[in-house]
Amino acid sequence: MKRLFVPLSIAGLIILGILLVVVGSVTDDKKAGSTNTTNVNETKYTEVAPCDVLTQQIADSLLGGASEQEYVPNSSANDTLSVSNCTYTLNTNTELPISPAKIKTAQLYVRAAKSVEGIASNKEQFDTKRPAGAQVVTGYGQAAYWERTTGQLNILKNNNWYIITNGSSAIDTRRVEDATKLADQIVADL
Questions:
Q1: Which pLDDT score is estimated for 10?
Q2: Which residues pair with 112 in a beta bridge?
Q3: Structurally, how many domains does the chain consist of?
Q4: Which of helix, strand or coil describes residue 184?
Q5: What are the distances in angstroms from CA 126 to CA 49, 68, 141, 155?
Q6: Whole-angstrom Cα distance, residue 95 to residue 47?
Q7: 162 in the same domain as 100
Q8: Which of 158, 146, 71 is nearest to 107 (CA)?
């Protein structure tokens, strides 16, 4: 009986050792997969705090004076998208009636994807839903366009949709050159 017990014990230990190695390697593979950002099946979602990107200092330099900040965090959020914005305003009106042309605004509106559906929705805005007549702008992420009727630069970067406004509150006086001045200062942080 003792002679049979020793080989069975050794065989049992070998089997146990093999099981531990197999289970350990499967667990390691799962851990590696959960943090591996190069896996083609994974999708990266980037949350952006707009006032961390468009700072008071940047806004003041673009607007030409001390501006007032308004931050709207997650003003609209669901399982697919998170929407927030940061706006700085400089009012140079000194008399009534107030003229919109004398109110300058620097704004970053962020529509951050939180799911595959959110990514698809953001990309659609630069493809099938891009406004007719929008001017394509290069050098800012996956895609970008200037929308003259709203006076806004739209950028698709890291699957998020960014809307940039810089200039007068009178929309018809806004220029793509002013919006790209702001974009040039913040695009690396998007």
A1: 41
A2: 82
A3: 2
A4: helix
A5: 22, 31, 12, 8
A6: 41
A7: yes
A8: 71
